[in-house]
Amino acid sequence: MANCCRKVFLRLGLARAKASSGDTAGARVAYQDFLGIWKDAAEDNPILKAAKAEYAKLQKFFVKLGTISSLVPDKPNHLSSSANFPTKASIR
């Protein structure tokens, strides 16, 4: 149980870290993950309120840029079958 809660809060921390480092697309995905997991949480939860406010601020940034769909991949890069992993031929 504790590991499950820790993983959820790590996602929120990841979202905040990515946002503060300028990785807005990565932050958006991490916030979506966190908010998706916490979709059934009590609306008056202060952590959830803060996360929603931070995500809304990030969304305004994307809308202002007009690039909301172009910056967020359909699936994370680490799940992509076309990841650029070294092959035996490229190492030689």
What's the helix-strand series? HHHHH
Low-confidence stretches: 68-88
Radius of gyration, in angstroms, nearest whole number: 16 Å
Q: Count of DSSP helices?
A: 5
Residue share in β-strands: under 5%
Counting DSSP E segments of at least 2 residues, the number of strands comes to 0
Structural class: mainly alpha
* Distance between the ends: 47 Å
For the biggest sheet, the summary is: none
Helix fraction, binned, reads 55-70%
Average residue-wise pLDDT: 76
Which word captures the global form?
globular
Report a brief summary of the structure.
Helices cover about 65% and strands about 0% of the residues. The protein is mostly helical and about 90 residues long.
Task: Write structural notes for this entry.
This protein starts with a helix and ends with a helix. The chain has 92 residues and is an all-alpha fold. It is globular. Residues 68-88 have low confidence and may be disordered. It has helices at residues 2-21, 24-37, 46-65, 68-71, 88-91. The longest helix has 20 residues, at 2-21. It has a domain at 6-69. The chain has 5 helices and no strands.
